[in-house]
Amino acid sequence: MMMMRSYLKRTLSAPQYLLHSRFSHTPNPSMSTLSSSTFRHHYTTHDSSCRFDDENNITKRVDLEIISIGSIKPAYPTPNHLRTFNLSIIDQMFFDSNTPTILFLPNTDNTSVSDVIATRSGRLKESLSELLTQYYPFAGEIVDIFSIDCNDKGVYFVEARVNQTLQEFLHQPDDQKLKELIPKHPSITTESSLGNFVISVQVNVFNCGGIGLCTSLSHKIFDGTTYFTFMKAWATAARSGSSQIIPPCLVASDIFPNNPFIKQWPSKLWHTKLPCTKRFVFDSMALASLKAQPVAPALRGPTRTEVTAAVVWKAAAKAATTVRRFSPDSPHALFTFVNLRKRASPPLPTELIGNVISAGNAICFPNKQPDLVTMIDEVRKSISKLDSGYVESLKREKGHETFIGFQKIINDLIEVMNEENCLFATSLLNTGIYEMDFGWGKPIWFYHMNPGCSRIVSLNEVKKGGGVEAVVSLSSEEMEIFESDPEVLSYATVNPSPLRFLN
User: Fold this and answer.
1) CB neighbour list of residue 135: distance below 8 Å, 6 or more residues apart
2) Is position 219 annotated as part of the catalytic site?
3) Within this chain, do residues 378 and 249 fall inside the same structural domain, yes or no?
4) To pair with 91 at 20 to 30 A between CA atoms, which of 41, 208, 393, 433?
5) How much is the average pLDDT of 200-216?
6) How many other CB atoms are there within 10 angstroms of residue 55's CB atom?
């Protein structure tokens, strides 16, 4: 307890933690904190492996101590004329969920743990407060599917100590263990972000001084590109000062205005039973073999996203047919989310904030046993339709008609398809995530956690070697079949330690 009190004293009294508004003589701390005694926890998690054997039915303990809880507010108050931030029609349509992500940052210069907490965590808070003056919607509150109230509610911010070294933690991480590093708040769930913080942060400090920087983000305004734009700006502000950041572009709702008469995607496609999540790493040799498949002629060869998504989709569809009845005409769908910014003509700014994405829709009939080449071709065709003409059709008022048509396609598909017979794919490749630097070293691992869907694959970069980490979530019954699929195992390694890919 004495150790914890010293952390609390150091955490709560250091000047850099209590930033005051420069517009007022009245103290307006950028971080408010709660009673220390309330938040001393030790969390115990159980392995939810989908293998049904005794050696995996073990208890795993994450010894985690909460040091402080509060909120980080913008360094400058948001002006009244910017109080309402309108969401775009794509934001409006998108699933309402919170997506956790985590960056693991090493302690490359052996700074003491106490200095990491006092200095580095303090710098994260100070730079975040400065950053929020430009990214002010992220410090607000989502009112409904159409707007954010930019009321300077702030970013929910937690500091924690993990009683392990970073190397020990990453030796064999699993999804349940990683979830213990997510910021927890009574009103924050993966199911809904309405009325909650747009962003929640937990700075997890390991015994070696390494940091697990976990963010939980509202998908009502965050797509993958928005996440990386924000995190790169935060890293720049922490390392070099906020004057060096590229300002966000906050005009998505002008390009893609929302429409109160269009409903968002059916939630039953997204929220289902508790998923089982595992990682499958495809190395560069496996990807080269997949990209050399004799696919249909095109202007370019298949991408890492296309071939990896096809392998996962094929095996997931096969697993689904084992668990549920499929007739010869029963479809299985793949929805591949694609960043539209670069597909527009001229391209939209990378810094354009919001969901600037759409989904390619591919169909297969598992009982007809399509081969891998066919699956790759289907994925490619679905993505190729999302071209500059498609992006143009989404803009301004004409976009409302496009979305109504897209909604009809989804509804028609649901009528002939069990809602569990689909897979969502999202790619976070080619983002430069491992080049991000907060001032004390680049990340050694990035992990994108499940936002609450039991049928999703997230494709992430491997730190070195050009590989792809596919984070796959399925029902436990389907995962047991999927992880034993011979084709998957011929290309991918299951749940390897991220430490294998550092050199």
Assistant:
1) 230, 233, 248, 353
2) yes
3) no
4) 433
5) 97
6) 7
Per-residue model confidence as pLDDT tens digits over 33-81? 433 333 333 322 333 344 333 334 334 468 899 999 999 999 999 999 9
DSSP string, 412-472: HHHHHS-TTSEEEEEE--SS-GGG--SSS---SEEEE---SBSSEEEEEE-SSSS-EEEEE
Check if 332 is active-site: no
Domain boundary residue, one of 228, 255, 282: 255
When divided into structural domains, the chain yields a total of 2
- Kindly report the number of other CB atoms within 10 A of residue 290's CB atom: 21
The predicted pLDDT at position 493 comes to 97
- Is there a domain that residue 261 lies in? no
In this structure, what CATH number is given to the domain that contains residue 458?
A: 3.30.559.10
CB atoms within 10 A of CB 133: 16
d(CA 485, CA 10): 52
Domain range enclosing 247: 2-255
User: Which residue among the candidates 219, 223, 332, 377 is catalytic per the annotation?
Assistant: 219
Domain-located, residue 462: yes
User: From the candidates 63, 149, 283, 437, which is the catalytic residue?
Assistant: 437
Q: Between these two residues, 261 and 335, which has the higher pLDDT value?
A: 335
